[in-house]
Structures are given as structure tokens and as C-alpha cells.
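Subject: two folds for Thursday's group meeting

Dear M.,

Sorry for the delay on this. The cluster queue was jammed most of the week, so I only got both jobs back this morning. I'm pasting them in the order they finished. Each block is the input sequence followed by the predicted C-alpha cells. Could you check whether the formatting survives your parser before we put anything on slides? The first protein is the one we discussed after the seminar.
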Amino acid sequence: MALDYQQIFKKCFDSTKNALRITGVAGSLDGQITWNSGLGAITHILGPSDQGLSISAQGTNTLSIELDESGILTASATGGYQLSGAPETWDLDAIAGGADVDLTISIDGLAAQTITFSAADPLIGNFAAVTAAEAADVVNDQAVGFNGQDIGGTLLVIHDNIGQSRTLEVTGGTANATFAFPAGVGYGTGNVYLTGQLAFSSGLGPMVSHIAGPDDEDFYISSATGQDLVLRADGDAFFTFPAATHIAEWARPFTWDDSLGALIHIGGPTDEDLSIAAAANNDLLLQTSGTGHINVNNTAGGIEIDDNGLIEVTGRIKFHDGLTAVSQIRGPTDEALFIASDEDPLTHDTYYLYLGVNNEALLTLVGNQASLSSGGGPFNLTAVGDPLTLTVSIDGGAAETITFTATDPIIIANGGYGALTNDGLAAVINDQAVDFCSDSPALTRIYPRHAALSSTIEVTGGTARATLGYALATDRGLSTITLDGWLTWPAGLGARTGGHILGPSDQDFYINGETNRAITLTTSGTGHAVVSSAGGTITVNDDAAGITVTAVANGAATLSTSGTGHATVGTANNTLTVYDDAATGIGTNGHLHVGGLLTSDAARVIETIVMQAGSTAHVITVAATDHFIGVDCSAAAKQVNLEAAATAGTGRVLIIKDQSGNAGANPITIDADGGEHIDEADTYVINSNYGSVTLICTGTATNEWAVV
């Protein structure tokens, strides 16, 4: 019923305070409450002193606070709900062969209620094609505390009461997979809508937070669907989160307060990588001020960029797949690209740079810095004089002078002028030198400072030089390259005038094998290994064991020329020695000219002349080393058995002679091996006194040996 506000006013008006007090009155007001003008700064509605003041709308109605009949603040709420993931219609008949199926639903964390769907239920027309409206009617017929609704062909189950504390959860049931309700709890809502601005009064002081989230859950600020989220300062948008791209846009620098401690200021998602990218055609700059560093780290290492622009990597640099033919590390456009190891000689005097594949170093560059060593301390400079000097030149430039005096505090602190230590000598040098520096092992060394491995250091003089033990000498840095694989070049490079491996312009070029190791030049197919020089002379010096040219098994080692040129192998005593373990000798396609003595080791063949003179054996077998065989047939006839033609080899020459002069009475029969022939006969007979025959192996199938 409507309130009799006149009676209420009479009973509750407090004339002493000019206020209306209402106690324990329930009902409705069929009108508006208005205040007269001129009331001043008062609280127009004052809550009780022992609890908060609540103003609420009933049911699902909204609560609006208006100004000039325009809604400035509107509050609305819903209960917890869940929406089916699959739209109508649903075949419930197929789930259990026509038997009843169900959903289990819990509200406010209470025991779940079971909603049963049955083919016999009059609310369902076709159990194999249940509509959203039919499913909602079944829910409304059985549920207590929640209801079902048809929302555009999907089934909505929603709490009957509103508010964030009103929860609803579809916990299971045999029909749940078909309806496809999401897992988890659906919470009610309590939203406040502003159609103006939310402003705070001045003088609030250092508020911890002007808008405070709930103490039992996270705090969310979000824009409406399809709208951007914009944060402004001093009227300007400094942060925009566009709905279309979901990429935050900053219009001002992003800074953090001091004293945040060791934390991650930008934390990436837990299920994917964190990407920081510049807009199209713009650079991504990471920079610090002063001596600050830029660090990209993980537990295994990272990347550090110092204030000098150097990048220090304590882990690995890895590139993504699919980059195709690009330069993963690209140098500047106005100068060369350098990749170098540590260049500080006080940190390392030997440098290593590795290039590898599959975590194995295939190319290793090793460098040794130029250095000169002293004679080792302590040094008695008192006996020489005061002051003393040492002069040193780097890369042939003007010499720097290091001065030693008895009053130098560094010298006094390191043994004094009469017993200067190695540490003291290094400290004096490092205090004065600009282009070089020193360390202090047993022999104090000096190095070029910040120099290439090709740099030189030279001690040029000074009155302290001899006492310090530095020689008048120059040292140059040395770098070597070690390959654990093949060094290959791509096709199509053309005729390189400088050569594919180019030596220095100011000195000779050396290729050296390790101790007791050979240097081999090989080609494949019909390619040639060519060593040439402009002067036409190639000189190979080997003071230890001479020159060896070795071919692979069954291959040839060839020295050849074109035109009228000669291939000459010369030695100081004009003797050429050839070793051939296969015993096939020296072969030529032309003339073999020997300017001195042509000899052979006793076990080798040039051909070697070996005689079986006066042999009394009835059967003489030709050996691989035989060339001339003298036969003694004075007592009886003899037989000489030849080698197989395949063993002898094409071109093998044999001379067989009656050395005793008795072949007329005792003939000498020469027998070819197996089924082989001599001038197409099985044997050849010497039957004249002092007769002889010269045979050559032809290699032909029917006439393996020929009489010359």
C-alpha cells in the first residue's frame, strides 16, 4: 500500500533539527521527494549512525541517479548464469538410446540440483530435436532458485537473484556434453554506469588509490565491446588500447617509480613469447643514460648492451626458422663489419673466435697479441741513474717515453727504486702509457692497447731499457685459423685475379703443415692441382727428408708441362730417386732424360738388371725383379717359367740367354704361364749355342708375350 506521507511527516518530523526521521517504516512512496532551495551545504539523506545507508532498486530493476533528468549514474545487476555452447536443436534421444538424461546445476555453492529430460515429458515435442524453448520450459518446471531462458536458440540458465555473490555452475550430467555448457562458475554482476565524468575533489591527500578494487579478487577496467580504452593525463591521451588491434599505444614515455627492487617491470604471458615491436618502417630503440646497461637475461644467460654501444652476450643468439636468404647479422652501410673476440690485452693475450655448426666449432680463429717481455724483476734502477726512461713504439708510430724516478709513489710502494718489482714496473707503465699497457707475470710483458692482432710493438731505447731487460726488438701479433671441416667456395666466382686465398701484400705467403704431417693438394674428376708462379719457377725446400709426391692407390703422380716446357726435378747432386712399392717402374709417353745417374734401390725396378747366371736348377722361375737371365745348360737341358702377364704388366721386358754355350746339345725351353702364349705358341726354344731371346709382355689375350 502507499505510504501516508503526511502522517509520517507529522510523526517523524524533528523540529529541533529541522529533519524527518523514519524508523521501521516499510511501504512505497507514490511520488517524489524534493528539497527546498537554500538549504545550504547539508546532507540531504542521512543514514543511521550504526550502519551504512543502502539505497537499492527491486528485482532486476536499475538504480539511477539523475541530474537535470539525464542519467548520470546507473547501477544494474544480474545473477550468476551459464549459456550453452551448442545452439538448438539437441538430439537427446541419441545419448542413452531414448532413456532419460539430465543436467546437474549448483547455485551459490550449494548441493547440485538435477534437471531431468525425458522423452515422455509433455513439454518436449521431439526428444531427438529438442528446442531451446522446450529445454527452458523443462528447467523452469523443475529448478528451484534459478530459471531457464531461450536466448536466440541457445539455452540460458540464470540465478533468480542478482548480485556478484550469486553464483551458478553446471556441474555435469549425461546431457551436458550435448548442450556444451562451459566448465567453471558463472558469477553475478553489479555494474555502475556513468554518462558523465567521475571526478575527485581536491585536497584528498596522497590517496593509496582513488578507485579501489575488491580485496578478494583482481580489479578490472575495461571498455565496452568494440570500443577503445583510453587513459588521459592533463587532457591528452597517453595510453590507448584499441579494440580493433588489441595493441597498446603510448603517446608519452613509460616510466617506473624508484625503489621497485628486483622485479620484472614488463611480464609476458605464461603461455607464449613476449614480443616488443616497433611500428612499420620505424626503429626499435633500447637505450639508457649515464653508465646504465641494457640487459636481456634469462637463467641461462642473456644480452647486455653497455653505454658504449657494445653488446655482451652471456648466452646464445638464436634466429627463427624461415628467414630465407637474409643476413642475420648485418654490418653498417659505410664501413666493414667486424666480429671479434675480447680485445683487452690485460684480460687475454690469446684470443679465440669460433664459428660452428650443430654446436661444434668448424672454424677456429686464434690470435696472439704482440708482446715483449722484460728480464724479470726486481730491478735495481739506483745503480743506473735518476731519472731513467723506456721508449716504446706501436705500429711504427712516434715512440712513447716512460719515465722512472725515485720519488714516484708507485715505485716507492712496489719495492723502491733499488728493487722495483714486476708489479711495480707494470703499474708505472700503465700509469703513463697511452697506446700500450702491461701486466706482471714473471717477465713483465707490454702489449699494444686496443689494437688489432696485426699490430706491432717495438722497444726503441731508453736509459732504463737494459736494466729492465727489454731487448731492442719488434713483435707482431699472430693469428691462425683452424678448420675442422672442408674449406669450399660456391660455383660461379669466375677467374679471381687475386686468388681465392690471397696472401699479404708486404710479405711472403706460407702454407705450413703440422710437424710430421703432409700437405696434400687434390682434385676430383678431370680437375688438375696447379701450382704456378709468375717467374716460372717453383722452389720447395725441405732440409730434412727431401720432396715427396705421392698419388693415391692405383693413381698417378704426374708432373706435366705444355708446349716446349720441361717438367724438371733437380737436386744438388743431379740424382733422382724414385720409390715405387708396386714395382712397376717409371713410365713415360715421350723421352726420359737423365742428366746424371739413374739408380734404383735393390728391391725396386727401373728395370733392375738381375742375373741368374750359371743356375744348375732344372726349372728356373722368373722373379718380379729379373731382367736378364743367364742360363747354364752345360750339364742338362733347362726350362724357364714366365710370370703371368697380369703380374708382369704390359711393357715388362725379359732377356734370356744361353750363357754356357751348350744350348745346341741341351736346349733351353721357355714356357708361358698357364694357357698364355709366346708369339701364339705355348713355348719358345733356344737351341743354338750362345743363343738368346728378348721378350716383351703385350697384355693381349692371345699373344701375351712377343719375341723382339
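Second protein, same layout:
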Amino acid sequence: MKIEAWRSDLLVFCARSTGARLGVRLRSSLAGFQEAYGDFSVSDIGLTNGFNGQAVGAFPGVVEVIDGTAFGRQFEIADAKNPRPIAITNTHSGSLFACGMNGFVARGTNSGDWRLLNANTRAELDAIFFASDRIGWAIGKQGTVITTRDGGEHWTSQITPSDKDLNGIYFSSERHGFVVGNNGTVIGTDDGGEHWYPVVAAGPTSVGGYAWLPAPWYFVTVIVLFGLVRRIPDEIPSVTRQGIAELLASDKPIGPGDPDYLGFQQTALGLSNYLRNNATKPPLTIAITGEWGMGKSSLMNLVQGDLRSYKFRPVWFNAWHHQTEESLLATLLENVRTQAIPSMFTPEGIVFRVKLLWLRARRNLFVFLLVVAAVAFCVSYFATDPHRLTQPPEALTQILTNPSRAIMKLAGRHEDVGKAILVLISAIGALITFLKGFRAFGVDPSSLLASKSNTAKAKDLRAQTSFRYRFENQFHEVTNSLNPLTMVVFVDDLDRCRPEEVYNMLEAINFLVSCGDCFVIMGLARRRVERCVGLVFDKIAAEGPTEMDGRRLSRSEQRQRFAQMYLEKLINIEVPVPKGGAEQIRTLLISKREEPPPRSKIEIIGEKLSELMPHLVPAGLAVAAAVIAVCCGLSLFNTQDNSGTGSGTSQSSTSQV
């Protein structure tokens, strides 16, 4: 649609598609609008005096327009064979210029004297504009722009950053102008067309426009908000109400913030301080010993809570609960992999991953240099044309959206497409390598289950044999990157497992402390664990010494002696659970629970929002994914539809002419 205005109360609209009738004259007034229809299919009108002017369209030559309501004489164009004018414009002095198919450009007067001009192009020209009597431009298919500085006598081509079909042009002066085209193409110039730039987020002196990506601050805001959401606790501690059921204490282990009736707090703080001391060097295995029900889990809970207050990320593993798993080692390593790594959206997680990437870059220097070279290559590609940062490269867009068309253009534009492919391959390769280095553990503990399956393949067995070596290397990298916060692993209820599983768990702990710098704290009843180890090594223990201090040892004593030596090799420090006195036990049994203080409305609202947040985050991400998919689909389909419409229009116009 073209809008041509010469008075504040008058507009003449002229449709630019085949089959449209001679403009609709709209005269603004309080009474409304007055319509006038013509009899010919026209594509453009140039008005020189009121409603009088000339029109071009699906007919040879140029036709006179009288008072905007009727056609008059038809003017021929000298020296033109089968002219196909599409657009027409007028200058300030009253001269007329027309352009059209096959590089057609002509100049005329109000009296109808038209002559053909040499435009030095065979491209279809769809619009023409003159900023003065002598300086003008014509635009058309595949990004064609030609200009004249002498009133149309000589025309020269100008280079534009787009090969899309152009169909609209306007200049506010001889230097500043804009051109629009298919698929949202907008280009501008500030020097009369010597240099054209895409009008995106910011041009050299432009006022702004559309960009193909959101502003950088948008991504920063999303990351910050997502990090804040991740910091909201998943659960709100339930409020304990006083009642008959609360008069006696339960067997549930206490945790941070619970009343410490047995006096475990001092022992827990001392043990936590020991682990946080820089002089305490890992690896180290600590056993918190005591009989069942003596408070081993409570003491470990207090140590874990104090460590968390210092930004540690301890791993908690209950051996009793997992003893029915096919492989306790695989289950333990999976818990380490999921619990010990800080979230990506926290300062600790960012620092950890930067350390991890740098450590792996130093260990794999060749791969690191390749990634740096690939990134530098991509940067140089965009540095040669900064506008590529805000607008997708044309060749790259064609490869992603229309591969078949891009392949067909290889013969004519093989250099551009080849560069785009190289940039794409380099970027994808660097991104994949970066993501692999960014991942803390690249091995899957489930590969340890291969030998336990009746359908295990040779490939699975090879993965199992190499798992320990690869996990050891990656675990060493992770523990080094966590410094100065050493990894701490808590293993509870080991003494409640079957003898074979007790042995398997101890072997898994031995493997873990040998892989990297970490602390392992076990809660166990030593006598029970010794009996389990002795039963597993019964035959080996029977081969040991049979006498001690001149006394013959029984079979059970031989097993116990062997188990004690086995555990002494594995356990570095043993911490017995403090035994409570009679007064402490009485306080524990009959103490009343403190009534929590009343909560404000803000706290209640915050609790409700925290309950909803785990549901809102995935829902919001799903909506965002759907919006992105719809936008990509609309962009892709609109591109195809516009291409099809443009070609269909050209064929139709040709057939009518």
C-alpha cells in the first residue's frame, strides 16, 4: 500500500497488487469520506496538480488521471518496446519518473512527453523516489538499488546489506533515507546511499528498530530471577503443636534448631570446626560410634547443619535404605554426583565451574587451544561486520530455514555459504566442548550394573571396566575445584545392613577416599560392623594366628581380631557418641515442646508462594518454550509464504501486461 500526501486534508491510496482498481479518493471532512472508483487496474499514481496526475499499471504506457475520478489520454513512451511500468513518482518541479520490469526507467512531463532512460540494470524495479529534481533512487528485486545525480540521465548501482526484494523507499533529505522490503527488511542510509546499514536495535545514527534477539539485559534478568527462585526452600518446616503426642520424645534424629537435651551440640561444633580447619588435610575417614539408639544420626545431623551454614554441600547417604540396590557403589556415587555440586545459578556454582573449566583446560591443553581458535574464528567473522551481532547472517539464515534453496545457491554464492557453514561448525564444536567441560561428572554410575545383567553386551562391560578410572579423574577434578570447601560425605546406618552389604559399603568408601580430597563420616556400632566383616572374611580369618598371649583363639575371636585390623586400616578417627546422664535422659523424655511464635500475614503469604513456586517455574518455562516455538514457526512459515506470494504476483502482473 502506498500513501501519497500533498495536503493535510487529502490522501490518495493506491493498492500495489494486481486487480486493484484506481485509487480511492478520501477527502477528510465532518461529513465523512467520498469514494471514487476508476475502470483500470493500476499499481501507482503520481499527482502533480490537485487530483490531476498520471498513473501506471496493467496497461501499456502511462494514463492521465483527471480530478481523481476518471482516466484521460494514454501516453506512449518514446523508444520503449513493450514498457512495463510499475511505479511512478513526481519531483518538486513537476517532472515525473516511472520504473518497472526489466530495468525500465522513464522520465515524463505533465503534458505527457515521456522518454526512455538507461538504468544500467535488468532487474525489476518496484519503487522510485526523488529527494530533489536531480537526485533520486529506484529499488527492486534481490536488494537492487540504483541512483541518479543528474535528473535521470545516468544511473549507478549501490551496494546494500540485503538481497531481499525491496518495495518501498522514502528520503527526508538528499542524505537521509530508508528502504523497506520482504521479510521485515529495513535498511537506511545517512550519506545519500553511499553506505547502507540494516535498521536493527541501533544503526549509526538511526533511532532504532527491530532486532532478531532480545536485549542482553533480558537474559541477565532471567538468569537472576531463576537463581532467586532456586534459593527458595522446597519445603516449609511443619509447625509442631503441643499435644498429648508431644509429651514424650520420638526416636527421630534431631537436627539444627531442635532442642539439644543430650548435649550433642558441643561435640558437633567441635567436629565441624575440625573439618573446616585449613590444617586438616583430606582424605580422612571418621567413625561416629555408638550402639543403636545412642544418637549417632542426631550427632551427624548437627555436624551436617553446621557445615551447611558455612556454605559446604555435604552428601548424605543412608546405607540401610539402599542395601537392596544392585550396586551400593553405584548408588553412593550417584548421590555424590547429585548432592555435592553447587547449583549453576549461585555464586558458589559459578566459581566452582570456572575453576573446573580452567583445571580441565590445563589438563587437556590441545583441546583447549582448539576451542580458543574456534571462538576466535567466530569472533573475527562478526568483527568484520558488527551488524551480524544484531541481525542473523543471510547465508546462515538460509542454511537453517531453507537448506534446499541454500544448496541451489552454492554455485553463485559458494563463498558466503561456505563461510557461514564454517562459522556454524566452529560455534557448535566450541559449544559442545564447553558444555562437556562445564559438566562436573561425565560418567554414569549405572554402567557399574552391566555385569549384574544377564543381557550385558561387550560394550557395556568395557564401559564398566573404564568407569572407575574415568570417575577417579573426574572426582579428583571436582574435589580440587570445590576447594577451600572440602567435600564431606555422611554414611548413616551402616551397622544395620547385611554382612555382605557392610563389606561392599566399606569397599566403596575406601574407593571414594582414594579418588580425591574428601572427608567421609560414618555412623556405626563398631561391634556389629566387626561381626559383619568377620563373617565375610571367615575363611581368611581362620588362616590367621590361632593363639594370642598363650591362649588359643576361638573361631569368633579370630574373625573379630581380623575385623579390628581391617577397620583400623580404613578408619582414621573414631568419635564415640557422648552418653547422657540420668538428668539429661529425664529431660529428653518429659520435656515440653516450645510453642512457636505467631506468624505474620507476610510470612503466611510467603509460605503459600513458596508452595506454589515449584509448580510455577515449570509452568512458566513451558509457556516460554511454547511462545518461542510459535514465534519460530510463524517466522519460518511467513518467510515461505512471502516468497511464494512475491513470485505469484510477478507472474500474474506479467500475464496481464
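Two things I noticed about the second structure. The chain is about 40% helix and 20% strand. The longest strand covers residues 42-49.

Cheers,
T.
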